[in-house]
Amino acid sequence: QIMGETRLPRHMFLWCLSAIYMFAFASLYVQIPGLYGNEGVLPARWQLRVSGKSVVEQLKDSPTLLWFGPRLGLDTQQCMELLSLTGALLSLMTLALPVLRDCRVFLVLWILYLSLYQVGQVFLYFQWDNLLLEMGFLAILIAPMKMPWSTKERLHDNVTFWLARWLLFRLMFASGVVKLTSRCPTWWGLTALTYHYETQCIPTPLAWFAHQLPVWFQKLSVVGTFVIEIAVPFMFFSPIRRHRLAAFYMQVLIQVFIILSGNYNFFNILTITLCMSLLDDQHVNFWLRRYMPKTESSMDTLCSWLAVVLEIGTYALLGYWSVRYFDLQVDWENKSISSRTAFTYFEFNGFLKTVTVPSIWIGVLSLTWEVISAMFKCACVRGVLWRLWNTIQWAVMAAATVSMFAISLVPYTYIEYDAHSNLWPGIRTAFEATDRYQLVSSYGLFRRMTGVGGRPEVVIEGSMDRNTWTEIEFMYKPGNVSAAPPVVAPHQPRLDWQMWFAALGPHTQSPWFSSLLHRLLQGKRDVIRLIQTDESQYPFSKQPPAYLRAHRYKYWFSKPKEDGSYPQRWWRRVYVEEFYPMVHLGDSYLEQMLDQHGLKDKAPPRRSSNAWLPQLLRHVGKHAREMPTPLLLWTLFSSAATVCLLNSLRSLARHHQHESVLDVPAGLVQLKQIEGSHCKTFVFWTLIAK
């Protein structure tokens, strides 16, 4: 019942992370001119002040490769494009070619994304960006360093891969806890999902249908969310293998539901990738229908039955606690299940105080087991030199893993004050010293449910004469009440996302909004492409508007008609108030806002435009931004998947040609026979594992 080898899940983890890096870099690449260009909403060059310091001092202040842009004859925008384009191409090759899934390649990818993150400002400060950076750094430890003399098996692999499981625990447990510690009345009243589907940033078409589900089912879904996010994560460290596998399926299930109902870019794929740490080779082989012969002793049979009893007991406890603490009752007459929160905030706070420190010790014990197990494996290696080499690797990686675990305790204990205040000062010092590199972060999505009483939405209007006003529709965020919600994941339209946050408060809390209006009044094409890739859909494509203003509306999903048929409109809306007053170029209020937040145009440094590298970047960018970004991302992914598929087919052909046992490079078990009905499954998973 102890979790076995994890070679295949590690390869799946690295393959998925390569795909996510490709999505993230390519998605950001097409948005750089409009967001961070010299004529963008928030020019990135403002973040890199020339101070006369040496390059080393500049890197200490802000660790980004953008400091080297001038040495290449590039301005900040062009250097950002170069870094993101390099990251997209490198991750694309890593996705397609197994030989590139090396720790040095993942180090380069991490440095590239960190460099962009440092100047990303409000458009790049999302939790999934932090999560990608943390997972990217873990991948440096998890991925092999491929040398001519290196072996396929590294005895410390389970130690470093354990960090992914710990990160998954921190992510899910904190996401569940903050919903209750925030004292949000919708989470405490179990009504959050009755608002969530229509108030999330960019819903999918399925969100409309999910919103129509009965209230009792929505409340029961909230109960399930709490169970999966707060209780189930403790099963990640269970010594019983089936506990971890059950936890895997429950976590993946909730992520799939989120993907179907909302556009959360690559965040849910990141979480599913972390869930690979709960698997082992045996279960992946089970997916591939490659059953390995096992010989069980009577003791193994006894342990197996004992594990089944403990497993049933665990699920019974989860069911009992769910019924008790959420007062679940079946209403047979109405064919529903009623639920309510049967505990108080202070009782939950007491629970949190009780479990936070023990959860840390559970992590310590689990990590200690992995470290000691790897140490014994090293001691059993034949040959003095090989034993010494494996022991040195184990010592270095174990020290790195323990260090990462230690500094992660600082953001993890943000959820409970006493546990945080009692941390050893040395851990705090180490965390503060590494904080600029985003090695670890705190998490907690959907802390409070917004949009209760209607989804706030900002609508920008333009006019040439102050009499006739035309709405400016965005590609992705709700605007036109007749337009269906889009499906854009894994792309993240970062301007659309920030428009959602801007609608939650006054425009003064979103200083970039004044800069956005200023660029639209100037008719900057790069900014317009953030709103509409097809400029023919932009109402002022021929001539910039003379005047702009913004209003706040409240949106709701439309309801089915009384006869059960679907309405013609997806949304209904009501005008609320003015969000931004009417302004024009040179308007005193607009100039005041730009001055107040330091957003006035500053002359960019002049760079040679005749150099080959800037010309190449302009040429690539021109063609890459012609197609919709989601289509671009899936085209890149399909290209890499095709290469993987061809490699798999070549391996199959080699197998049939030699009529011998197939040796899969990732360390898959040897196959004696490949049945025709299993070929498709084998090709797909070899695509990942290879």
From TrEMBL:
Function, in words: Involved in the maturation of specific proteins in the endoplasmic reticulum.
Gene source species: Cyprinus carpio (Common carp)
UniProt domain Lipase maturation factor 1/2 C-terminal: residue ranges: 439-581
Keyword presence, Endoplasmic reticulum: yes
Localization terms from the record: Endoplasmic reticulum membrane
Entry keyword annotation includes Membrane: yes
Protein name: Lipase maturation factor
Any matching Pfam family: LMF1
BP GO terms, sorted: protein maturation
Top-level taxon of origin: Eukaryota
UniProt membrane topology term: Multi-pass membrane protein
Entry GO terms, CC: endoplasmic reticulum membrane
Record-linked InterPro entries: LMF, LMF1/2_C, LMF1/2_N
Residue intervals passing through the bilayer: 12-32, 82-100, 107-126, 244-260, 302-323, 360-380, 392-415
Keywords: Endoplasmic reticulum, Glycoprotein, Membrane, Transmembrane, Transmembrane helix
Domain Lipase maturation factor 1/2 N-terminal residue range list: 125-285
